Amino acid sequence: MSKKSPSPKKADDAGYNARTAHINAKLGHDELIALYRDMVRIRRFEERCLRSYQAGKIGGFLHLYIGQESVAIGCVSVMGDDDHIITAYRDHGHGLAVGMGMNEMMAEMYGKYTGCSKGKGGSMHFFDPSRNFWGGHGIVGGQVPLGTGLAYALKYQGRKGACLTFMGDGAVNQGAVHESYNLAALMSLPVVFIVENNGYSMGTSQERSSAGPSLAQRAEGYGMNWDIIENGYDVLEVRDKVDRALKLARDKHLPSVLEIRTYRYRGHSVADPDTTYRHKDEIETYKATKDPLMFCQTALLAEKVLTDEIIAKIDESARAEAENSAQFAEASPFPTVDDLQKDVYWEADNPADRKSQGTLFFN
Amino acid sequence: MPVITYREALRHAMAEELDRDPNVVIMGEEVAQFNGAYKITEGLLAKYGPKRIVDTPISEAGFIGMGLGASMLGMRPVMELMFFSFYSVAFDQIFNNAANVRYMSGGLINCPIVLRGPANGGTNVGATHSHTPESIAAYHPGIKVVVPSTPADAKGLLKSAIRDNDPVMFLENTLLYGESGEVPDGDVLIPLGLAKVMREGTDISIIGHGRAIQMALKSADLLKEKHNINAEVIDLRSIRPLDEETILASVRKTNRVLYVEESKPFCSVGAMVACLIQEKAFDYLDAPVMRVNSVDSPAIYSMPVEKLQLPTVERIYQSALNVLK
Hints:
By secondary structure, chain A is an alpha/beta fold. Chain A has 13 helices and seven strands. Helix content of chain A is 42%, strand content 9%.
């Protein structure tokens, strides 16, 4: 992977062991297996998405999360009942992590009416407010003020919760992100900004796009807490550090910036060539040494939590679930032209409660 | 009926909605401690405290996006833009997020947010501070656009906008803030999408929105005085939703139309209204629909020329005579 500046060491890094951290020490076998299973589900689902994309069933962009599964699963697994989450366009992993179904997600990518957004959003725009998931946003960094606002509302309404606001390393140079950092620190908002640093903003490496010693350290300029999760492939390390930041947000209204070092195996989107800015060796080396699924599997095999039989079963089940979702999507109807002007205005969708008059749509 | 200023009418609307709904907050630059750059929010901090009346840094993309995120969780933020011109700094938050989030979520989310502030030229502050973005705003499905021209409309429409479950851009005018008018006391709402016949007439329909309506009324006086022409003057008040019925009824009556507005002519609201009229009332027209807009250049600083760049009573009067030729 691309050469990164050395990250400043924090005092608690010495002798750190994620497995024995408080949040992880108490995990039972079922919970550990669930973490592994949920990562496998993301990978198998996305591999199936890729096949559908190559078959022309999925259009537009397909930003795959493969290689980064430990981040979404680790983060979401430590969310409480009134914690909320918002992310950018590489959102399939987060959707599955919060509990959205493969069917509604695959159907959305197929542009079908049974999709989570009725075929109106596509791959980049998954939402499920019933699971505290607020998207799925297409413009780099554009969701970060929204996440800050979700945190604002939680605090204003006296709720004990925080908002995990995700962005990629390519977002950190957008003005809206810095404005959000400032507002969060200034107003003491319960938000955890998570920078999923996969090393490349599209095809531009971190060292060619972002100044400074690390992305997270920029938080210092705003007097905010920050940390780097060096081993982002380790779902347990992600859990521990995110849990600590969430507690600071929920209990003390202290925002944080967490940079999670991770890696994506595919191009920025599937349509993009992946050979101009990195070597195949780099990808293969990462896969061989730091793959989040393999890392977890190896650890859980050593602990005798996983067995070859369970691994095979999980894999088979995830493949079948993904395959079924593709069949569900294929069999589902497209939205119709009549659906174009639904879900635009709340008032138009709720005519019995409409207070305004006059024409809303002009054809 | 009490006579108050447009500024006071806006303040009363916000105060009444703050009293009514604990999810309403007022946010923006200088709205609290400074009492408002144009004193619209004067006294609100003292009455409602810093939880409800919130100063923000100069950070439009950040705080408008933040208000929008808060609205997704059920808050009703009323965001003040010190000059509406600064909306361009938050363009992505307004037109990618506020306008589209409901759609892209398949109707799972709605954003009950109001963006309000002065959107006008004529104050000698140059091009960057003199934008009139009503047509740009109304271009976007998902956004509602309101332009009040009287104190009563300012209050009644702002109250409706705050209760609206869709994002509303509420475009005021600094030159109207000090104007007085009769405003009903208490909880009187004016629905969005309802135009108002300001003056009845039979010979020509002068339709428009914003401060240009005040000039149109003076032009109508001149037309009556000098030529015994009875001009009907219609204030749209709301651009989207749009009261097509009132427009078309007037066209069917007078058969001649002049549209007046302070924004630039290209792709303006007047252009849209002219298009609707020729589609839906072509046979009733005795003359082409004409328009009076600001002269098509960036807003000039120089004071005497700036006054001439904007629509004037004289220009509206002459244009009406041309339509009647």
